[in-house]
Design brief:
3 copies of one chain form a homotrimer. By secondary structure, chain A is mainly beta. Chain A has a single domain, classed as UDP N-Acetylglucosamine Acyltransferase, domain 1 (3 Solenoid), CATH 2.160.10. An 8-stranded mixed beta sheet of chain A has the order 3-6-9-12-15-18-20-21. A 6-stranded parallel beta sheet of chain A has the order 2-5-8-11-14-17, with no helix packed on it. The longest helix of chain A has 5 residues. At the B-C interface, loops of B face loops of C.
Amino acid sequence: MADRPANEAPYRLLDDVAFGDGVHVGPFTNLYGCQVGDGARIGPFVEIQRGASVGERCKISSHTFICEGGVVGDEVFIGHGVTFVNDTRPRATNDDGTLQGSGDWELIPTLVERRASIGSGAVILAGVRVGAGALVGAGAVVTRDVEPGDTVAGVPARVLARAADLRAPHSNG
Amino acid sequence: MADRPANEAPYRLLDDVAFGDGVHVGPFTNLYGCQVGDGARIGPFVEIQRGASVGERCKISSHTFICEGGVVGDEVFIGHGVTFVNDTRPRATNDDGTLQGSGDWELIPTLVERRASIGSGAVILAGVRVGAGALVGAGAVVTRDVEPGDTVAGVPARVLARAADLRAPHSNG
Amino acid sequence: MADRPANEAPYRLLDDVAFGDGVHVGPFTNLYGCQVGDGARIGPFVEIQRGASVGERCKISSHTFICEGGVVGDEVFIGHGVTFVNDTRPRATNDDGTLQGSGDWELIPTLVERRASIGSGAVILAGVRVGAGALVGAGAVVTRDVEPGDTVAGVPARVLARAADLRAPHSNG
C-alpha cells in the first residue's frame, strides 16, 4: 500500500487513505479514511467516505459518492453520478432537535461484488448486495439484492435478464 | 448571524452568505447570496444559489444543488445528489435566439418543510411543497406536493405510506 | 475561437478547449479537449470530456457531465446533474482482468439538437438523439430517440406530448 496515488492532480483532498499500487485519482476529489485497491481509477468530483473500500482495477467515474459502509469489489465499473446510501430512515436531527451524530442512526453496509457494473446516475440503497458480474442500468434505483450476472434497470430496479437464462439451454416445447 | 462558517475548509467559495452560529461547510462548495441557519451542515460539492435559504440544524449532503427559490425549513435532511428545480419550461434562449436572463422566465419557489427528509438522488420539481416530517425516497422525482408525514417514492413520486394511516386506529372488520 | 473563457473564476481546469467568443465558465469545472460555442454558459462542478462539443448560446448547468461523443447543438438548455452515457455495456476490465483502455470498448455518440431542453437529473443513454426543440423532463432516463419538439419524461422516458399533436388541428368527431 502507498499513502499517495501514482499520479498528480490539482484540487484533491486525500486524508488517511490507503492506496494500492498504480492508483489514479482525478482532480476535485475528496477521499478520506478509505481504501483503494491496486490500479483503480477515481474520477473528478468523487467523494469516498471513511470506512468505504474500493477494490483493485475498479473504475469510479465522475460525480460519484461512495458512503461509509460501501464495499466495492475488484474490477467493478461505477458510472458517473452514482450514489450509495447507508441508512433507511435518514433524519437530520433526533427527536429532541439535536443534530444526529454517528451513534444516532444505524449504518447499513452496501456491497457491489467483483466485476459488476453500475450505470451512471444509479442509486444503490442501504443493505443491497449487487452480485458478481451483474449490470445495473443507468438511472436505476436498486432497492433489493441483484443476483450475480443479472441485468436490472428502472425505478425501482427490476430484472431485465437473468444470468441463469443466458447460461441455460432453452427448450421451447 | 455571521459572515463565515464555524469551520475552515479548502476550496470553498462563499460570497454574500448569511451564516447562523456553528455552521459547518465542507470543501468544494459554492454558496452565494443565500442564508444558512444555526448549526446546519453543508457537504462537499454543494451549490446553494442566491435567494435560497436553509434552516437550522439541517444536513445538506454532498453533490446537492439548491436553486434560487429553494426554501428548506429547520432540521431537514437532504441526501446526496439532490436537485431542486425552479422552472417548468427551461430554455437556454428566447425566441429571438438571445440568451435568457433573469427577467425572461418565471421563478417558481420550492419548499421543504421542517423535519422532512429527502433521499439521495431525488429531484424536487418547481412549485412543490414537501410537508413537515415527510420522507422522499432515494431517486424519487417529486412532481406534486407531499403531505406532512407522508412517505413517497418513484418516478413520478407516489405515496407509499400516509401519515394519517399511521396515526389512525384501524378497524379491519 | 479563443483559448480562454471571457470570465475569470477560481478552481477551473481548462485544458485544450476551443472556446467561442463570450463564453462564461463557472468555478470547479473540468473541461478538456472539447469545443464550446459562442456565448455558452457552463456552470460549476461540470465536466466536459475530450471530443465533446457544446453549441452556441447553450446553458450547461451545475453538476452535469458530458462525455466523449456528446454533441450538444446551439441554444440547448442542459439542467443540473444531467449525465450523458456513451457505452452500452460498461466494464472496468477486459476478460483477462486488465483495465479497459480506449480501444477496448465502442464509443457510441449521443446528440442533442438545437433548442432542445434537458431537465435536471436526466440521464441520456448512448446512441440517443434528442430532436430539435424537444423537452426532456427532470429525472428522465432517455433510452431511445426523442422526436423534434416532443416532450418526454419518466424511467424509461415516454412521450407526454407530441409536437405533431400541438401543431395539428384537432377534429374530435
